[in-house]
């Protein structure tokens, strides 16, 4: 089975109060999955900006959260290791699922 995560960034805030909203960091979904639920999420205290995509070090820690599916449902789990770039965060999420195939949906 080929494991692939598809990453999508949150939409740009629009409307009257857009200056008060933060653009969300990328979320991952399993490629070709029947379930549309998120597989992983990148998060930080700072708002996402397109320039962060190509940076090798964004200047702050990125938190990676993954989805764990159990008999009781699903829940988010935060990985202990922090990332310093979006590519590093994506790699952490992919490596988690490669090492823990039981959580792949």
What can you tell me about this protein's structure?
By secondary structure, the protein is α+β, with helices and mostly antiparallel strands. It is built from 1 helix and 5 strands. A 5-stranded antiparallel sheet has the order 1-2-3-4-5. Strand 4 and strand 5 form a beta hairpin. It is globular. The model has no long low-confidence stretch (mean pLDDT 87).
Order of helices and strands: EEEEEH
Low-pLDDT segments, ≥5 res: none
Biggest sheet, strands in spatial order?
Answer: 1-2-3-4-5
Please give the share of residues in helix: 10-25%
Compute the average pLDDT: 87
The profile of the biggest β sheet is: 5 strands, antiparallel
Which outline best applies? globular
* Number of H/I helices: 1
Strand-residue proportion: 15-25%
Q: Using the CA coordinates, give the radius of gyration.
A: 14 Å
Tell me how many strands there are: 5
Content-based structural category: alpha+beta
Distance separating the two termini: 11 Å
Concise summary:
The protein has 1 helix and 5 strands; from the N terminus they run βββββα. The chain is an alpha+beta fold. The longest helix is centred in the C-terminal third of the chain and has 14 residues.
Which keywords apply here?
single chain, 105 residues, alpha+beta, 13% helix, five-stranded antiparallel sheet, 25% strand, globular
């Amino acid at each position: 089975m080929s494991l692939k995560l598809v990453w999508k960034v949150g939409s740009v805030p629009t409307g009257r109060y857009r200056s008060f909203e933060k653009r969300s960091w990328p979320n991952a979904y399993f490629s070709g999955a029947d379930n549309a639920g998120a597989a992983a999420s990148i998060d930080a205290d700072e708002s996402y900006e397109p320039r962060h995509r190509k940076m090798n070090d964004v200047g702050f820690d990125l938190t990676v959260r993954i989805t764990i599916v159990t008999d009781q449902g699903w829940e988010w789990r935060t990985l202990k290791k922090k990332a310093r770039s979006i590519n590093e965060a994506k790699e952490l999420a992919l490596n988690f699922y490669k090492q823990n195939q039981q959580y792949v949906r």
